[in-house]
From TrEMBL:
Catalyzes the cleavage of L-kynurenine (L-Kyn) and L-3-hydroxykynurenine (L-3OHKyn) into anthranilic acid (AA) and 3-hydroxyanthranilic acid (3-OHAA), respectively. This is Kynureninase. Pathway: Amino-acid degradation; L-kynurenine degradation; L-alanine and anthranilate from L-kynurenine: step 1/1; Cofactor biosynthesis; NAD(+) biosynthesis; quinolinate from L-kynurenine: step 2/3. The lineage of its organism: Bacteria, Pseudomonadati, Pseudomonadota, Alphaproteobacteria, Sphingomonadales. Pyridoxal 5'-phosphate binds at T98, S99, F126, P127, T128, D129, T168, D197, H200, Y222, W251, T277.
Length: 411
């Protein structure tokens, strides 16, 4: 792709996804390239939440569990997410957080391999995934062992002792995409079940869980699905695994929760992976984001994501190549999710300086600047301008301020 501004303007003019930008609340001048951490606010969400609060809760009160079908929200929204991920209706439930769902999925998978003891992942996986593995090891009294190996050695470590492989499909730092179908196939050949973390996949790339013969998967609702801060996550369990017994056997996962029986009886299907009372307000916001995503053509979305990424790399090479940035993301767009990451010794300070110039990206320790490419609202011209503002802070050394050297609690 040439980097001429006229061509960039033409790409924006012909972009079939361009009308979606008007459905998000984004102020003029802001370039938001952090949708891989927190998606932008859909305009429909505020009205939906207001109706849920003032009408369903305020007027309907407890009758809204049935009258407004609050009780069916986890399954209803789960089915909508399933359609985005190549899963069947009844295989996805919207509930809890990604971390909690990792615990549920990994323990359920491990219960199906009782003669094996290892939960395996890679050393660079997102920390919460590994933390949950370590917690499961401690809770099991050491019967289950948490093991992490170098990313390139994961498939070679699939031995007869491995019960579950936990991997992230799109790496949170680099954006590297793992081949879900190939990894799952090789794991199954060794009798290993796979739990996929789709936090940077759902709504960002085309996913085909059933086509890949996936076992379990989890993901969050607040990144590319635009469900809002702390939005409920989701859990996928392939239909063939619906007899797996979840360790977190909460009352909404009971076969008949309102009979208040003394003993637990698991609900049929993926509903058994519910736990506590559904968070109605969070689910209402999430549904707005999911409904918006459901209207988009994932093939067009992925096509634009690739073009945005290539444009970003080209502009960085041309305009910032002299300032010591190292591309962390794969250069091959087929191996890269919907983000671009660069390493730089002063990456943290640069991200802070960019915020002062109305470019919001994010930073991941020790030195990675991440730029999320969200095709529903990011324009090609935004990419060009973001790189220009980054060049400006490099030329002027605007990042070199004492206040930028103290790292905040959230980066």
């Amino acid at each position: 792709m040439k980097d001429g501004l006229a061509e960039v303007a033409d790409l924006d003019a012909r972009d079939p996804l361009a009308p979606f930008r008007d459905e998000f609340r984004l102020r003029d001048g802001l370039i938001y390239v952090d949708g891989n951490s927190l998606g932008a606010l859909p305009k429909a969400t505020a009205a939906r939440l207001a109706a849920t609060v003032t009408e369903e809760w305020g007027e309907g009160l407890i009758t809204s569990w049935l009258g407004a079908n609050w009780v069916g929200a986890p399954q209803r929204i789960g089915n909508k997410i399933a359609a985005l991920l190549g899963a069947k209706a009844g295989e996805v439930i919207a509930a809890d957080s990604t971390s909690v769902n990792i615990f549920k999925a990994v323990t359920a998978a491990a219960s199906l391999r009782p003669d094996r003891s290892v939960i395996l992942s890679e050393t660079t996986n997102f920390p919460t995934d590994v933390y949950m593995m370590q917690g499961i090891e401690a809770f099991s009294g050491g019967r289950l062992k948490s093991v992490t190996v170098d990313p390139d050695a994961v498939l070679d470590r699939l031995g007869a002792d491995v019960a579950v492989l936990l991997l992230t499909q799109v790496h949170y730092k680099s954006g590297l995409i793992r081949d879900m179908a190939e990894v799952t196939r090789r794991a199954h050949e060794r009798g290993v079940l796979v739990v996929w973390d789709l936090s940077h996949s759902a709504g960002a790339i085309e996913v085909d869980l059933n086509g890949a013969n996936a076992d379990f998967a989890v993901g969050c609702g607040y990144k590319f699905l635009n469900g809002g801060p702390g939005a409920p996550a989701f859990l996928f369990a392939a239909e063939r695994h619906h007899d797996a017994m979840p360790v977190l056997s909460g009352w909404f996962g009971h076969a008949s929760p309102f009979t208040f029986e003394e003993d637990y009886r698991a609900a049929a299907g993926v509903t058994r992976f519910l736990c506590g009372t559904p968070p109605v307000l969070g689910l209402a916001a999430l549904e707005c984001g999911v409904d918006l995503m459901a209207r988009a053509d994932m093939r067009e979305l992925r096509k634009k994501s690739v073009r945005l990424g290539q444009l970003f790399i080209e502009r960085m090479t041309a305009r910032c190549g002299e300032f010591g940035f190292a591309l962390v993301s794969p250069a091959d767009p087929e191996l890269r999710g919907s983000q671009i990451s660069y390493a730089h010794p002063h990456g943290y300070e640069m991200v802070q300086a960019l915020k002062e110039r109305d470019v919001i990206g994010d930073f991941r320790a020790p030195d990675v600047l991440r730029f999320g490419l969200t095709p529903l609202y990011l324009r090609y011209a935004d990419v060009v301008e973001a790189v220009e503002r980054l060049r400006d802070i490099c030329v002027t050394r605007a990042w070199d301020k004492p206040e930028y050297r103290v790292r905040a609690a959230v980066t």
